[in-house]
Amino acid sequence: MEKEEYSKLETIKQIRFPKRIGELIECRAKEKKSNFSEIVRIACMNYLDKDVQDSQLIYASLNDAKRKIGYLETKQDLMAILIIELAKRIIKDLPARLNANEEIQEMEFEKFLDQCSSEAKLRNNGFLDSLAMEIYERSAERAEGGD
């Protein structure tokens, strides 16, 4: 450290180390061609920075996990809506489907999807649209990867 930089250091503290730690710090100072105080300052800053970074990483990880859990819960709710609506529809329309041709079955399926979509939109403000976009993007990525 330059003499000008030493003048910026305003706090002076006396600390006591066990003999072995003092020797280790002295050895490190010789290796780095520095002095005892500089090694202690660096060690303190590394320790303090590590604590701050660790807590920030933990909070970021928790927030990320919370967001992912919320996303999965919403997806699960959407799947539950689809299954319930499908079960209602099958129970109600099974006898009619046995005698219907393919065009009528397709129209009924489209009607079923519309009902499920409107139910999901009522419960999950815009989530269905974002889910559809995500599925579309993933299928596009798979198609590009497969070519």
Structure report:
With 147 residues, the chain is mainly alpha-helical. It has helices spanning 3-7, 19-31, 36-99, 102-123, 127-146. The two termini are 59 Å apart. Helix 2 (19-31) packs across helix 3 (36-99) and helix 3 packs antiparallel against helix 4 (102-123). The protein is built from 5 helices and no strands.
- Structural class label: mainly alpha
Query: Rg from C-alpha positions?
Result: 33 Å
Amino- and carboxy-terminal Cα gap: 59 Å
pLDDT averaged residue by residue: 76
Low-confidence stretches: none
Number of strands: 0
DSSP summary: helix tally:
5
Helix content: over 70%
Largest sheet: none
Succession of helices and strands:
HHHHH
Please indicate the percent range of residues in DSSP E strands (runs of 2 or more).
under 5%
Shape: rod-shaped
What descriptors fit this protein?
mainly alpha; 147 residues; rod-shaped
Produce a short descriptive summary.
The radius of gyration is 33 Å and the shape is rod-shaped.
Topology of helices and strands:
Elements: H1 3-7, H2 19-31, H3 36-99, H4 102-123, H5 127-146
Helix pairs in contact: 2-3, 3-4
